[in-house]
Amino acid sequence: MAQIDEIAPDIYRISVLAPGLDMQFNHFLVRDDEPLLFHTGMRGMFAATSEALATLIDPASLRWISWSHFEVDECGALNDWLAIAPHATPVCGAVGALVNVNDFANRAPRALGEDDVLTTGTHRFRWVATPHLPHGWDAGMLFEERDRVLFCSDLFHQYGNVEPITRADVVGRYRDAIAAMQAHPVLMDYMPFTPATRARLEQLAALQPRLLAAMHGSSFAGDGAAALRAAADVMEELLGAPAVAG
Ligand SMILES: [Fe+2]
Ligand SMILES: [Fe+2]
User: Fold this and answer.
1) CA of 142 to the centre of ligand 1 (A)
2) How many A from CA of 233 to the centre of ligand 1?
3) Which of 26, 30, 102, 148 has its CB 3.0 to 4.6 Å from that of 36, i.e. a possible disulfide?
4) pTM attached to this predicted model
5) Buried b (16+ CB within 10 A) or exposed e, 183-203
6) 148 C-alpha to center of ligand 1: Å?
7) How many Å lie between the centroid of ligand 1 and the Cα of residue 40?
8) Cis-peptide, bond into residue 185, ω within 30° of zero
9) Is the model's pLDDT at 242 over the cut of 80?
10) 124 Cα: distance to centroid of ligand 1 (angstroms)
11) Nearest CA among 175, 212, 215, 189 for reference residue 73
């Protein structure tokens, strides 16, 4: 069953816990003149997420469906949503459209270039292309300008059935999650730390987000720029060298 929380004015976090993974999968609805969903979720979670969303808006009124990068938790259920939302348009980065979505989606996407703006009524979103951050050539993030919300995908990934919003040490939790992933025999190296990673995190910090809407774990309310800069240090420390088994 999904848990719904309003984390900013008219921005709702629809959270589904995957108990086997001890991890939340969060989907964000922006209720506006043109409602926007960020993260479609997996196909296997579609019944739970669509039922939850229907308590907030008529799913048929969805206008925009967006995500960070091509992966099942990000956009696996895209075509399921398109089937129940006849006016919805997928929104992704230009790379994502070219390499995946033009072929995968049952409806043509709107492809956003660097710093393109999408307006949904009272909210304005800026697309920030972030290749290989958190991972994937096509990766990008949406920044909501009015309330300074950064939809940051797998950045600030946290384990556990945690609270919807925290002001606590989200970087410490993120560090614990990366360490656990790096110790995993299959899931290690899920995020790269490349020569461009720190600069991309700095680019996001310059937006001065006040809320970091994480896909897995709590959203962080506070100094988003400081958290992003601290995340760069943690990522370099834990991901900057290959996690080769000894
Ligand atoms: Fe991912
Ligand atoms: Fe994810």
Assistant:
1) 15
2) 20
3) 30
4) 0.97
5) eeeeeeeebebeeebbebbeb
6) 22
7) 13
8) no
9) no
10) 24
11) 215
